[in-house]
């Protein structure tokens, strides 16, 4: 069936709780899909470490489908999530903007009134996301898996996935519950799905395939497959657990290894579906929302045997392992650059890249990501703007970091000669202190020669250090100035 020109104007005024002023949705004009537009698939793991795939060096876990995806596509060794924690990372990926601009500074817990206004936190209605941008040029869109971008999930009090451009969604607020096995907390387009037999990674791929079977054949699609694995509470198929028991320290580690392979098998099923149904011209991006969880950091983290590989830190760190994650790009049906690249690429870059490939206009707002289409075409990509992270609840001491080229600079935050208290959220009662806090105790690393961040080169390279320090302070100041502050009365930026 031929594509028809469809033009519509969608204006909706959403009123939310917490005395938030209603925000008017942008006018969206949908035009005819072009034959050259690629289908776009984002495969996103949860808490998968830099060293958890065999193609990224894991000595035991078998990930043959992802290995092949990397071998026949682009393996990105310097790929970054947008934050070292889940909700923030997802908000940044969807919008192409630092999650601080969206006001998502930490993971979003279930709704419970909080003195620091954390209960208000959600991806706000005026944020423009990847699916909304792609819908504007004819795409059909679907989310399956983890959402975690609102404190009030499946509630009219806050925007839900469909308010950000997803035509179809099958999701959970946060983790699969009670575990990856037989989860009972999925919601399908606003309706509770009840208990579903099986394992989460396979269940959401089943749902994705079902959606693909029923979608219009003449429209390109955007599909986000947001796996819960290998985030706790982990549960894995027993046959895979038995496979790894002789190779693991204990049963819990075997269950972790099996958990990662089960994701790989689910990815393989989706790729096989594409092949069987002759679905080509499909760009696939695989990554993780942040680095690996620390074993026993909290009582339920008893299976958290994720590997940071050669990187320093873990999830919740602003050292590399917190947000440097596996990155794979593969364009099925189109010849591109193939091989390994050290180009510095971020999940922030997905929105502008996808928009360029689809022929869509970029949102009229500050974006922190850049299109990396040149990497697909030639294997070369040099980002113009450095990557800056400010995670105010980081486990490590230096909570603000910036990477530019081969170099990374980090600093502590000090207020009145003391460390700035750890915070989950910026709100009207702490924003003045955060703005008064100074960056101190800087360190400088060359990540090309020192991936483990083991050698501070600030004194050995004074010219580079001083230039980086000036730019770092400027970038952080600009990011802080543009960060959303949550105010209970109006929720406006202060």
Major beta-sheet overview: 10 strands, mixed
- Determine the N-to-C terminus distance: 51 Å
Strand content: 15-25%
Count up the domains.
2
Fold and architecture overview:
This protein is α/β, with parallel strands linked by helices. The chain has helices at residues 64-71, 86-95, 99-102, 130-135, 200-214, 238-244, 251-276, 320-323, 350-358, 373-378, 431-436, 462-481, and strands spanning 13-14, 23-24, 39-45, 74-76, 79-80, 140-146, 168-172, 187-188, 191-192, 221-226, 282-288, 327-332, 339-341, 345-346, 387-390, 400-404, 407-415, 418-419, 438-446. The protein is globular. The relative contact order is 0.17.
Describe, in short, the structure shown.
This protein is α/β, with parallel strands linked by helices.
Task: Please specify the SSE layout and strand pairing.
Layout lengths: L12 E2 L8 E2 L14 E7 L18 H8 L2 E3 L2 E2 L5 H10 L3 H4 L27 H6 L4 E7 L21 E5 L14 E2 L2 E2 L7 H15 L6 E6 L11 H7 L6 H26 L5 E7 L31 H4 L3 E6 L6 E3 L3 E2 L3 H9 L14 H6 L8 E4 L9 E5 L2 E9 L2 E2 L11 H6 L1 E9 L15 H20 L13
Parallel strand pairs: 3-10, 3-11, 4-13, 5-14, 6-7, 6-10
Antiparallel strand pairs: 1-2, 4-12, 7-8, 8-9, 11-12, 15-16, 16-17, 17-18, 17-19
Characteristics:
494 residues; alpha/beta; Alkaline Phosphatase, subunit A; 2 domains; 5-stranded antiparallel β-sheet; disordered N terminus
């Amino acid at each position: 069936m031929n594509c028809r020109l469809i033009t519509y104007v969608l204006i909706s005024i959403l009123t939310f709780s917490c005395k938030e002023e209603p925000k008017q949705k942008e006018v969206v004009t949908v035009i005819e899909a072009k034959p050259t537009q690629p289908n776009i698939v984002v495969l996103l793991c949860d808490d998968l470490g830099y060293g958890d795939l065999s193609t990224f060096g894991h000595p035991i876990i078998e990930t043959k489908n992802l290995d092949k995806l990397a071998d026949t596509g682009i393996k990105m060794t310097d790929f970054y999530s947008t934050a070292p924690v889940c909700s923030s990372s997802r908000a940044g990926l969807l919008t192409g903007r630092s999650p601080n601009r969206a006001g998502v500074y930490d993971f979003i817990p279930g709704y419970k009134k909080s003195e620091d206004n954390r209960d208000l936190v959600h991806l706000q209605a005026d944020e423009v996301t990847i699916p909304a941008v792609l819908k504007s040029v004819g795409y059909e869109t679907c989310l399956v898996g983890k959402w975690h971008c609102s404190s009030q999930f499946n509630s009219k009090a806050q925007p839900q996935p469909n308010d950000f451009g997803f035509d179809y969604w099958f999701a959970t607020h946060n983790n699969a519950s009670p575990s990856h096995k037989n989860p009972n907390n999925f919601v399908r387009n606003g309706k509770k799905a009840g208990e579903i037999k099986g394992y989460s990674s396979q269940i959401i791929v089943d749902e994705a395939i079902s959606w693909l079977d029923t979608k219009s054949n003449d429209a390109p699609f955007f599909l986000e497959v947001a796996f819960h694995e290998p985030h706790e509470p982990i549960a894995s198929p027993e046959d895979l657990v038995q496979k790894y028991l002789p190779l693991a320290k204990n049963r819990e580690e075997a269950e972790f290894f099996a958990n990662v392979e089960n994701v790989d098998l689910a990815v393989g099923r989706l790729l096989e579906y594409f092949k069987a149904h002759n679905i080509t011209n499909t760009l696939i991006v695989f990554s993780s929302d942040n680095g690996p969880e620390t074993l026993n950091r909290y009582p339920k983290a008893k299976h958290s045997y994720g590997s940071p590989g050669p990187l320093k830190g873990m999830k919740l760190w602003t050292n590399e392992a917190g947000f440097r994650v596996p990155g794979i790009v593969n364009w099925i049906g189109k010849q591109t650059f193939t091989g390994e690249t050290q180009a510095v690429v971020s999940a922030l870059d997905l929105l502008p890249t996808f928009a360029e490939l689809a022929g869509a206009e970029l949102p009229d707002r500050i974006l922190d990501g850049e299109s990396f289409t040149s990497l697909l075409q030639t294997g070369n990509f040099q980002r113009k703007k450095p990557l800056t992270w400010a995670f105010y609840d980081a486990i490590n001491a230096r909570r603000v970091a910036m990477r530019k080229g081969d170099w990374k600079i980090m600093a502590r935050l000090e207020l009145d000669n003391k460390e700035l208290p750890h915070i989950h959220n910026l709100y009207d009662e702490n924003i003045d202190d955060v703005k008064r806090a100074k960056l101190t105790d800087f360190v400088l690393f060359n990540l090309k020669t020192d991936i483990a961040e083991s050698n501070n080169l600030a004194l050995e390279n004074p010219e580079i250090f001083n230039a980086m320090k000036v730019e770092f302070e400027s970038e952080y100041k600009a990011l802080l100035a543009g960060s959303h502050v949550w105010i209970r009365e109006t929720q406006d930026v202060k």
